[in-house]
Structures are given as C-alpha cells and as structure tokens.
Amino acid sequence: MSVPVAELTPQAYKTEEHPIWCPGCGDFGVLDSLYKSLAGLKIDPKDLVVISGIGCSGRTPGFIQSYGFHSLHGRVLPVALGVKIANPALCVIGVGGDGDGFAIGGGHIPHAARRNLDMAYIIMDNSTYGLTKGQYSPTSPVGYQAGSTPYGSIEQPLNPVAMLIAYGATFVGQGYSGKPRELAELISRAIQHKGFAFLNVISPCITFNNTYKVIPQKLREIPNDHDVTNRAKAFELALHTEHVQMGVFYQAQLPTFEEGVNQVVQKAQAAGQPRLDMIFAEFS
Fold it and tell me: Is the per-residue pLDDT at 258 higher than 80?
C-alpha cells in the first residue's frame, strides 16, 4: 500500500471490488463503519487480516484493502486462530452472519471465547439465510415464515449477546447497521480490546427479512451507568430482548491465548526439550 499510514482515510481501505449485496442491505452499513474504524485507528493494511465464512457477509474480505481469507462455512474462528498464533502482531478481524456463526460454526464460538484469542469477531445478524433464499436461521423469531418454514418457525431464537457473555468472551457488544457513527465507535473499541471481542450487529436483509421499520422503534442505548465489568449485570441486561440495546455489555481484562502459548514455548525452551528437527533426525 503506497499511502502513508498517517494519511489513511476510509477510502484508502476500499478495493476495486464493488459489493454486490442487494441495494439497502444492512451489510453496506457495517462495511462503511468498518472502513471508518480502520481509518480512525490508522491500521496499516499490511498488518490487517480479515477472515470470513460463507453467506452474504462472506464476501467482505474482498472489499477491504488487507490480507483476506474467505474460509469454509462456519470456519472463521479456526482460521483466525491459526493466523493469530502464526503472527500475533497482526490485527485479525473475523466477519460472518448469524447462520455461518451460530449454526454450522456455533461449536467454535465457546472455544474461541474461553481461549480469549486476541481478535474481533463481527456478526452481521439478519435472522435469515439471505444468500440461499431466506430460510430461517438460529436467530429467527418464533413464527418466522420462509420457504423452509411456511407455517412459521417453532424454534426459540438464540440470544447471541447472552450466549457470548456466558461463554466467557472478554468483550461483548451490540450495534445496528443503520447507526454507522455509533457502530464505527463500537468496532474501534472491539479492535482495541486485548482479547476476544464479539460484536453482534443487527443488519437487516432487505430482500427476505426487511426489519427496517421494526428495528428503529426497538433501539435503546445501554445506560451510561451500566458497569461493563459486572458480568452478572451484563448477562441480566442481555436477557431484556424486548429492545435492541446498543453499546458494550461486558468487558474484562484477562490473559490472551497468544500470551499463554508464548509462556509454554518459553518453558519448553528453558527445560531444554529437544526440538522437532532433532526428534525427526533420530528416525531419519
């Protein structure tokens, strides 16, 4: 990238690839907020890796001037783990949808959270499978009608925010794609957090689950006096789903996975354990 880091603007992070999302898709707002956040933090594109899974949001790495990896369905977090362990100096951002993250990829979330991998994971939650014609997803409300549920979904939706707090993520927040300034600030806080930062972003699907008239009436800012270090209070707040609460629910400082790996390496080196090449040499 030829642009000096000090002169980075949102435009500098745009590639020649143009998003092909449906006009009005909430993911445009998320992408725009991400551009603004990266520019505000002056993150050098050569130090940035954006990893995605499958779905409409899976195309995101192609629109950002950085290293990118469009991974398999639900495999954002294992890839991110490998990237971060290989080069802890990189800024790693995972992006995905509610289907990619909470259905086939749901088994990876608790382990990424408990390990406290230093990365930001942004879910664009539209409560539907937008890429595959609007089937119901893990966050679809009861009664959601689609091709896969013509008589309405009978399953209770997941609560992503409560789930991540329960799993032990050290940063949990929620935003809305229609509030780009506030969302950019949230993304910046998530990126700056040392540890596993999760953001659930309500991002309406204009084609299959158009909630643009519903969501704005439900938006609420998290009260200023909310103690983000109180996990029990954060969990209690997350259970109030009658409103879409925007802001940081929970934040804590704990050792990261990379720091733990480095300590193990140092202990092994101090113990004088033979290296792999030495072990292999015995059998060559």
Answer: yes
Of 34-48, 207-221, 247-261, 265-279, which gets the smallest average pLDDT?
Answer: 265-279
Judge whether 260 lies within some domain.
Answer: no
Whichever domain contains 217, its CATH number is 3.40.50.970
Q: Share the mean pLDDT of the chain.
A: 93
Nearest one of 137, 143, 133 to 123, comparing CA atoms: 137
4 pLDDT band, cuts 50/70/90, is low
Instruction: Assess if residue 279 is contained within a domain.
Output: no
Residue with tokens 């629109």: 63
Query: What does the chain come to in residues?
Result: 284
Average pLDDT of the segment spanning 158-169: 97
Please give the model's pTM, rounded to 2 decimal places: 0.92
Cα separation of 125 and 99, whole Å? 8
The total number of structural domains in the chain stands at 1
Q: Is residue 275, in this structure, part of any structural domain at all?
A: no
Domain span at residue 218?
5-255
The four Cα atoms 99, 121, 123, 218 give a dihedral, to 10 degrees, of 140
Residue 93, beta-bridge partner list: 50, 120
Q: What are phi and psi of 281, to 5 degrees?
A: -65, -30
